[in-house]
Amino acid sequence: MRSLCVCSTDKEYGNTINLETFRTSSDFLNLESISRSLICQEDSTIYCLLERAQYCYNAFIYEADAFAEDGLEGSLLEHVVKESEMFHAKLGRFESASELPFFPKELPDMFLPPNQYVIIDVNHKMWDAYFQNLLPNLVKEGSDGFYASSAVRDANCLLAISKRVHTGRFLAESKFTANTKDYTAAIKAQDKEALMNLLSYPEVEENVKERVLMKAKNMTEEAVYKIDPSLVREIYARWLIPLTKEVQVEYLLRRLS
Ligand SMILES: O=C(O)C(=O)C[C@]1(C(=O)O)C=C[C@@H](O)C=C1
Questions:
Q1: ipTM of the shown complex
Q2: Using CA positions, which residue lies closest to atom 5 of ligand 1?
Q3: Least crowded by CB within 10 Å, which of 100, 192, 212, 247?
Q4: Rounded CA gap, 18 and 27, in Å?
Q5: For position 229, which CATH number holds?
Q6: Domain for residue 17, yes or no?
Q7: Centroid of ligand 1 to alpha carbon of 121 (angstroms)
């Protein structure tokens, strides 16, 4: 029976970039400590969503050729994310196994630990889901001129969501370690459905959805700008939990390769 933990930090995923170290370190592959980290991440994720919701959609941020006259390719948001990743990379952010850049090809090789990128990366799928589905439901239509502020908030949301979803790699490894026999059979058969059944805990998912709903209610009560708390629940139900599970399945399918 899974216990439902309260809170902790995610320090346990610190500078551990080597895949073998990652697989053999029992401390941070403990399912309860990973769950605690997920619970802590909820606060920052909800806060990021709330912050972005104060601005309109601001389509200009996403126009691919907005800076063509200056000889620059890409949207304002892409620039914000790429530039911040470049800066963070220099500080060593991507030495942490829990951090995956959206634009790894733009980063100098020396900032990219070799092992980290053979494992699962759904950042591009997440990027599309964020703009096509999540953002239009979160913000008001139209423009208010706060382009830079909105782009920075988008970048923060993407980062928080990416971190949450890719924690799936740690969850998967922890579940594999705890029940190697059953997982191995499903992996050898490359049976996605069996893996999905093995790694899913419906009652835990219900708890997550209810908890984020309560957190969103509390946070929006204090905030000047509001979002419908049930939207946060829906974001978790429709995007964050399914993507976290997808990362787990994809990770496991390659686990014995
Ligand atoms: O807690 C876990 O075991 C997870 O894999 C995380 C998570 C989630 O995304 O919140 C995903 C799958 C489980 O069914 C329960 C919860």
A1: 0.99
A2: 171
A3: 192
A4: 15
A5: 1.10.590.10
A6: no
A7: 18
Please give the residue range of the domain that contains residue 91: 32-253
Task: For residue 7, give every residue at least 6 positions away whose Cβ sits within 8 Å of its Cβ, in sequence order, or none.
Answer: 36, 39, 40
pTM of the model: 0.88
Distance between Cα 108 and ligand 1 center (Å): 34
What percent helix, strand, coil does the chain show, rounded to 5?
A: 70, 0, 30
Question: 72-123 pLDDT, tens per residue?
Answer: 789 999 999 999 999 999 888 887 777 889 998 888 877 776 655 446 889 9
Q: Which atom of ligand 1 is nearest to the CA of 31?
A: 3
Tell me whether residue 19 is in a domain. no
Residue 24 confidence (pLDDT) above 70: no
Atom of ligand 1 nearest to the CA of 35: 1
Task: Identify whether the C-beta of residue 102 lies closer than 8 Å to the C-beta of residue 161.
Answer: no
Ligand 1 atom nearest to CA at 208: 10
Nearest to 30 by CA among 233, 189, 175, 184: 175
Look-up of token digits 């990652």: 22
Q: Indicate which residue's Cα is closest to atom 1 of ligand 1.
A: 35
Residues with CB under 6 A from ligand 1: 35, 171, 199-201, 204-205, 208, 241, 244-245
For ligand 1, the distance from its centroid to the CA atom of residue 248, given in whole angstroms, is 9
Q: Is 105 exposed, middle or buried (0-12, 13-18, 19+ CB in 10 A)?
A: exposed
If we measure between CA atoms, which residue out of 159, 145, 162, 166 comes closest to residue 81?
159
Task: Quote the number of domains for the chain.
Answer: 1
For ligand 1, mutation pick of 165, 244, 250 (most atoms within 8 Å of CB): 244
In a domain, 24, yes or no: no
